[in-house]
Every structure is written in structure tokens, then in C-alpha cells.
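Hi R.,

Here's the chain you asked about this morning:
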Amino acid sequence: MDRVLIDSDVILDFFFNREPFVEYSTAILSMCESKKIDGFLTPLIYSNMYYLLRQTAKHEKVVKKLKQLFQITEILQMDRIVVENALNSGFKDFEDSLQNFSAVNSGKIDLILTRNLKDYKNSELGVFTPETYIKSINASR
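And the predicted structure, written out as C-alpha cells:
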């Protein structure tokens, strides 16, 4: 079973029903729910999701949505080493660098799912869009 870090953009595609990406983000979260993959997020992703969802809904509704997400995913740690690695990396986007090093340092993650491939080009992990990941799984069956 693959252990994947799901980047913020994938979660946002789901919550905001963003076409044409929602189909694949929904499939990824369904795979987490049915235990076909182990999905991981970071505390930073939860913080970002809260902030962005709060722009369109009340606190209680946002917390309810995040609790649902919490039920089907695991959370990676972020610590001083993650931040230091992110600061010293060649990543152009600091947030994505934090996500990457949280995944790398955990030793638990096989790949990162994001639509932002260019921001993860320096990652030592495999990086896929949800669409290419799902298509590669279906092709191998």
C-alpha cells in the first residue's frame, strides 16, 4: 500500500469542487477512506485549509470538514530539522519545501501527490499529480 503526502492543492480541489481536478482529488480521498492508500497531511496543510475554508464558511462548519479529513488521513510531524532543511534547500516555494522535508524526514512517505509538480522538482521522493497516479494504478491492474 502506498503511503502518500497529499498536498494542499489536492485537498482544495476537493473542498472547493474545482473542475476539472475534483474528480481525481475525490478519488484520492476515497482511496484513503477505503484504506487503499495511506494518506498523510502536515499541520501546515490543516492550518492552510482552515484559513481558506474559513473565508467561505463558519468556524463550526470548517472544523467539521477538517475532522472528516482527520478521520481518513494521518499527520506528519514538522520540527526544527524540517524547517532547517526547508530553509537550506533549493526549493523556490518555502511552503512546499516544508511539506517535502516533513515527508522525507518521516521515513514513511513513498510519494507526494500534488498538481504543483514544478515546485517539487528537487524532491528525492516520487511526485505525481492525482490524475497520473490514478492512471498509473489503473494501468498496472
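The first strand starts at residue 3 and ends at 6.

Let me know if you need anything else.
M.
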